[in-house]
Amino acid sequence: MLDRPADRARDHGWVYGLPPGITSEQWPLDPVTGYPLMHGFTLLLPEDYRVHGEDIVAVSFFATPADHTDGGATDTPEIREAVLARPSHPRLSRMTDILDYEYAALLLTRSEYEGAFATPPAPLALATAERPRWLDVGGASAFYGAAPPFAQKMFAGPPRADLTANLGIALMPRASDPNAGKPPQDPHFPRNPPSDYQSYYYFDGVPSPENYRLHDWGKDHAHNHLGGTMRPCQAVPEMSPFYIEFEEYFGGYNFGTGNAQLDFRDMKFDWACG
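RE: above sequence
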């Protein structure tokens, strides 16, 4: 995540701000609250990660905003039915987390990725939840205003209070990652059949905190990354090699100071607290 607004001519997407190339009607609403889900990021995929065909070049991720995640989702059947009855984007995938909060991803064509920014739709008339702050000040400003000091340090300064305010994404190749192109595997819950996926840590002797070590090849890996070695805060979720792992500040979420993984091939989502 860069410390400046996105430049679409040279960057690989953006964090916060607005999604591109869709109509307001195609913006996914939250079936729990009836408000629009918050846009977290839009990522231009490298060619090796375009697993849905060469015409699908990017993915936009939407999430329940942090100020709507308190105590577990309370479902209202009328709101859910009304949201799911609306017309949707042809490549929309919806996902829920362990607390039944909602997330969504859109697979975008080149023309959509290069299109104009979308305008958030109005909430359902049935919506009774408190209006999320991001709809008034933008996702970046809303997250910054509520984030702990360590997360605020990821910003060069307070973001503009504007729906369009975003930060660019720059992709850089990892110098060394033996797990590139391999599905992640938890060392305590091996896959069947097993793979040669390697854990980023080991124990120098008897497993204990004082014997915990990191392999040299993983010490400089960025926290936000595409594929390769996964470093979740808790157990490794079963996913394809085509996933993005990201932190709370990479779009502005409430993961309990943890991190998340989005498998954009199989459309799976998981997060765990720190």
